[in-house]
Amino acid sequence: MDHTDSVNADPATDTHTEDRFQRFRNQSGFWWLGLCNNFAYVVMLSAAHDILEQQEPHNATVPTPAPGLLQSDGGNSTNSSSYGCNPVSTAAVLLADIIPTFLIKLTAPFYIHKVPYGVRVLVCVATAAVSFLVVSFSSTVWMSILGVIFASVSSGLGELSFLSLTVYFSNNVLSGWGSGTGGAGVAGAFLYSALTQAHLSPRNTLLIMLLVPAVMMISYFVLLVFPPSFPQWRPREACHCSSQERQPLIWDNNDEDYVQDERGKEDRQTGPLTFVNKIHILKGLLRFIVPLAVVYFAEYFINQGLLELLYFRNSSLSHAEQYRWYQTLYQIGVMISRTSLFCIKIRRVWLLSFLQCVNAVVLVFAVYYQFLPNVWLVFVIVLYEGLLGGATYVNIFYLISKETGDREREFAMAAASVGDSFGIALSGVVAFPVHNYFCSL
Q: Which residues cross the membrane (predicted)?
């Protein structure tokens, strides 16, 4: 009977089942890669308030806490300011978390094709693990900042590499990546908030999170099903892949008209892109990079410049706990909107950027005039903020994947990622004087 079943099996059905299973593996693989890539970055921002509370003892006669990050008082600041300010804005951690990423995204698209994908992933795994170790065993703010920088290197290199990698797979992996990066926000912020609030020491919390780089390695090397000619351990220039092998192979039915209009434009040039080609592509990407930078400037100015100052003393939550849950709810909004690409696409991304700027203006006035009645209203605003930011990110990269030719798509996906990092870095710079102004009142 077994022999008869195998003879009568429909090869087309077997192939279709295999294709569906392969698509599922690749989409799942990119989901996990997105989660793992952004995880350390999110954890460092969630820990920003606590990182800055860990100060060097000013008097040798004062008992020194045991070595390790964040020996805090539970977040109840003794600062006399009504804002409960730290001496340094959490923007300090934001800048350490974003400037290395920004520099990588700004320059790497012009040379990263010389580094094999396998090597890039190993570097991402190593730097993420080092970031958790350095921050968990730090005894000073600046040692913690060094650990944050390692997390930034891992996240920046990983994002531009994995976005470029999507062009070698079917169309659905970009949705998986976007959803996974949104999931990283929830997982990172929630786990840090929940574990520390459950009285697990910050050091042990971060050491537990060393599992995440290991999951990244498994997701990439075990879960993904690569095309036969994929340049895993050799530079892409040494790969003789045709443009057909690099482009996504499967399209959704509702994309057919869009594909015919945009993707159907044949790129008749061959060979690697020149520097002049890349500059020309960057000019065309400005209509995506600018709104991406604007929306991320507004939301990170809120997150790292204003949220720390929205402190409600009548709440049962301490200052540190309020800040952690602001970050967690923001990330929940990001996860929901980045997953929405499966069912809805938004082309008017400028509208999303404008609405995020409105959020920033409203919260600036809320900090100055302190007219918001309770922390719960801020929770709702922060959730909405995350929805706008996540939707902007995932729809912009979806549009780029549709509107660029086969030859330039890999570079375009990596190069456009500089937009969010530029906006975040600029918000960190602006957040410093804003923090100092409000704390001086």
A: 30-48, 91-112, 119-139, 145-169, 176-195, 207-226, 285-303, 323-342, 349-369, 375-399, 411-434
